[in-house]
# Entry
Amino acid sequence: MLSVNQKPINSGFNSKTESSEVLNGLNLQDKVIVVTGGYSGIGLETTRGLALAGADVIIPAKRIDVAANNLDGIVTKENIYQMDLGDLNSVKSFTDKFKNKYSQLNILINNAGIMACPETRIGNNWESQFAINHIGHFLLTNELMDMMIDIEGARFVSLSSSAHALTGILWDDIHFQNTPYDKWMAYGQSKTASSLIAIEFNNRMRDKGVEGYAVHPGGIITPLQRHLEKDEMVALGWMDEDGSPSELAKNFFKSPSQGASTALWCATSPDLNGLGGIFCEDCNIAKRKSEIDESMQRYFGVADWAVDSEEALKLWETTESLLEL
# Structure
């Protein structure tokens, strides 16, 4: 079942809206916000915008030294905590520390992730992209969500990707144990999961005053592409043979600040009150792929499987059983 709210509204923004425009005039003082991956790429711009608006932004980071360097002058070192999404004990250690220090959580933004990396097994022989992008974030969310109950304006934002369109959840072989590993299918599956977690979160929390949103930030060249060779970037249409940005990239790719805007819009915009459980892009609610021109379906719109509430419930319960919660 798909939400009747999965259709664009008049947001007043567009694909090239800057973070500062979304946050203009907002006072986020006294708001406690957690941003995973909030020290690199669009995550860094997300943190910068929230901090400038007065929020108390907490950054769980795998690389504390890199985070401290990148965030110098944006947040204090005391707001940076050790956490590795690929290590569930590390995730639990962070959430325990957070709950000991804070009494509430206003906004959780699951921004961190890995993309199209070589086959790697972590945890209980789990495929690493699904494990880091989804399972680690699921545990984090599960541990912190009760701190958001009845907090006015509390929201959960989960970053997906246009790659969700590659595949729904591969229920018969989520971890590529019986089929050859495909790094793009694995990434696409993990980003479908990143959307579905927001859909089911919203189903569970909306009656408690909390809403959840999935976000496609847009095409942005960030450290996320570190595993891609030049030939792959050319094949994807992101780069010309000479290494310069393609016409596609020039027309559609965003700066990191523009890439952070949709997540910030979902985290803060009053226009989305009561509209949780949806997938957003370009500072608006996304159209379903069936409603847009076929030539653009690769890059825009949301596949039905990424916002299907039955799929979302199944994934939530499946992940709970993986973690024995």
